[in-house]
Amino acid sequence: MQLRNSSLRYGAVAQAFHWGVVALIIAQFTLAFLADDLPLGMHKLVLLARHKSVGMTIMGLAALRLLWRWSNPVPALPPQTSTWQRWAAHTAHGLLYLLLFVVPLMGWLMSSAKNYTVSWFNLVTLPNLVGPNEELFNTFRSVHKTLAFTLLAIAVVHALAALKHEFIDKDNVLRHMLPLRLRNGAPATNVATHKDSASSKESV
């Protein structure tokens, strides 16, 4: 598979960023839910420390993904995509990128306000962004939680839209981001090419 994007599909680097962040977001919510059910103690603190480390990883990967996206134009949506769907897709992508930065940042601020150390897998210790402040801690915690569930909701809608493209519209949009692109034993892009060739012959 090629590393860079083409006009037909995402390259290996973009796919790795995409699915890596998806996996980390799932891990984040799993760690958060597990920690919430535990009493204050070492086990809970370990889970929260991992939660923070994964959050910093997501923020870093989001930055790298944006840099890669700016240097690699993404495949265009199918020509038949309506104006409102294009607007919805661009808006959803923009919000997802924004929240991938803001949600971890709110978590970092929340920990700083509580005077809890934020480290990246005990390899790098990050500085506190604000001083100890219980009122700020409560505010940042509320914002962090609200935005996290907003991120989850948009991600679910994004996934449902991708499934609609695959199973209802059948326009191969989802397959642009899949490492495997087989359809009936042949690459999806080849299928599209065959269809176009067949249509051209019929028109002639």
Q: What can you see in these coordinates?
A:
- The protein has 204 residues and is mainly alpha-helical.
- It has a single domain, classed as Fumarate Reductase Cytochrome B subunit.
- It is built from 5 helices and 4 strands; from the N terminus they run αααββαββα.
- Strands 1-2 form a two-stranded antiparallel ribbon.
- α1 runs antiparallel to α2, α2 packs across α3 and α3 packs antiparallel against α4.
- It is elongated and about 55 Å long.
Quick take:
This protein is mainly alpha-helical and 204 residues long. The chain has helices at 12-36, 42-71, 83-113, 134-169, 188-203; strands spanning 118-120, 124-126, 182-183, 186-187. 68% of the residues lie in helices and 5% in strands.
Secondary structure topology:
Blueprint: H1 12-36, H2 42-71, H3 83-113, E1 118-120, E2 124-126, H4 134-169, E3 182-183, E4 186-187, H5 188-203
Helix pairs in contact: 1-2, 2-3, 3-4
